[in-house]
Design a protein that fits this description.
The protein is α/β, with parallel strands linked by helices and 395 residues long. The chain has 16 helices and 13 strands. It folds into 2 domains: 135 residues, 3-Layer(aba) Sandwich (Rossmann fold), CATH 3.40.50.300; 250 residues, no CATH class. The strands form 2 sheets. Strands 7-6-8-9-10-11-13-12 form an 8-stranded mixed sheet, with helices on both faces. It has a 5-stranded parallel sheet with strand order 2-3-4-1-5, sandwiched between helices. Helix 4 links the parallel strand 3 and strand 4.
């Protein structure tokens, strides 16, 4: 098992604090392994094995639908004394009303509770009803480039070659832990993609026209990093002789977001200092989700670099927006408490340096500004703007 210290360290900071720790992310991003890491760390710190209750609630493990009461009773049976128990509950969203069971365990037992989940039922409105102010949400993403290098520490490839591999096959741990060729890697990711689309969305939301839904998903995947609206999708479908309401498109986008397939990046008006409700962009949970659907294409790399940088900023704890500065657009405005950075992303700098730098130079404050590029020769400073190779920025 390869340790992901960022998550383990974060869980340690919340250990024994009376909050339910909710780890949420797309299927196969590593949530179950993080619970395994936590279990080993608890044992290492003197917690007896019989005081660690780990339960997995996947549909494969439970043929019949379990009730929240049965979930509660099953866990209570494992608690045999008044000592401290650590509950590691995996894929809880499969249990209807899991929030009630967890809330009861928090109230009537000496427990520290960690749960994971990978679809919309995890963050349903009931969590607010039963766990208001009593949980902390910890987003789990696929591997960062730094983590990918850890997974590949025995590889004979250079760091440059591993970066190219990371850009092409993404950061799902199940892919990174093996030595798969590109086609096999995409087949594995396609399996994850299909299970999310079919099980976590289509079946759960009773989507009857799967072909039309898949076409909407494909449109989103094709247009990662571009500004588009639900209306644009409706018009596109109409041009193909298909009909779908704007409301249905909004529902599809919401469900894709709640299944952690796509992440919405809102625009921030830097002059009005307000978040705008229109003209958002969407990014995929992992770049490989695009390639498993569309195939790898060199022309799509520029948009995927944006995708990679977006999630790198999210992993580092930033709230991330697209910047609107009058008529100019800044790829990312990343905010964390009193800290702020501006980032422009481009594949090749020489032909784009003037435009990228000009957009940043129009921002009249003293927060750090970066241009991130794949250009091997680009490094240095343009009027106070730091130019960095993608690998350096990610690390």
């Amino acid at each position: 098992m390869i340790i992901r210290p960022q998550y383990l360290d974060l869980l340690k900071t919340y250990r024994d604090i009376p909050l339910v720790k909710v780890l949420a992310g797309i299927r196969r991003c590593g949530k179950s392994t993080i619970l395994e890491m936590l279990k080993e760390d608890l044992k290492k710190n003197g917690v007896a094995a019989d005081h660690i209750v780990d339960m997995r609630y996947t549909s494969e493990d439970f043929d019949n639908e379990m009730t929240s009461k049965e979930m509660y009773q099953g866990i209570r049976e494992r608690i045999s004394d008044t000592g401290r128990y650590y509950l590691l509950l995996d894929e809880v969203q499969e249990i209807n009303g899991w929030e009630k069971a967890v809330n009861s365990l928090l109230e009537d037992s000496n427990t520290d509770i960690y749960v994971t989940g990978s679809n919309s039922k995890l963050m349903s409105s009931e969590i607010s009803t039963y766990l208001t102010g009593r949980y902390v949400s910890i987003p789990v993403f696929t591997l960062s480039f730094a983590e990918y290098l850890d997974f590949k520490k025995d590889s004979i490839l250079s760091r440059k070659e591993l970066l190219n591999e990371y850009i092409r096959i993404g950061g799902f741990p199940v892919v990174a832990v093996g030595s798969f060729d590109e086609n096999t890697a995409y087949q594995i990711v396609e399996g994850i993609y299909n299970s999310v689309i079919t099980s976590d969305i289509a079946r759960r939301h009773k989507i009857t026209n799967l072909d039309l839904f898949n076409r909407v998903v494909r449109f989103v995947v094709e247009n990662v990093g571009k500004i588009f609206s639900a209306n644009a999708i409706v018009k596109f479908l109409k041009s193909e002789g298909r009909s779908l309401s704007v409301e249905a498109v909004y529902n599809y986008l919401e469900w894709l977001g709640k299944a952690f397939v796509i992440y919405r990046c809102q625009r921030y008006d830097m002059q009005g200092k307000s978040v705008l409700k229109t003209q958002e962009k969407f990014y995929l949970a992992d770049v490989s989700l695009k390639y498993c659907v569309m195939g790898f294409n060199q022309k799509s790399v520029a948009a995927m670099l944006e995708n990679i940088v977006y999630f790198d900023l999210r992993r580092k704890g930033y709230d991330v927006y697209i910047g609107k500065n009058a008529a100019k657009e800044i790829d990312f405005v990343a905010v964390k408490r009193d800290e702020r950075i501006y980032v422009q992303v481009c594949r090749n700098l020489p032909e784009e340096s003037d435009r990228e730098a000009a957009n940043l130079l129009e921002i009249k404050d003293h927060y750090p500004k970066y241009i991130v590029t794949l250009d091997e020769l680009a490094a240095g400073n343009i009027n106070g703007i730091k130019v960095m190779h993608l690998a350096e920025f990610l690390l």
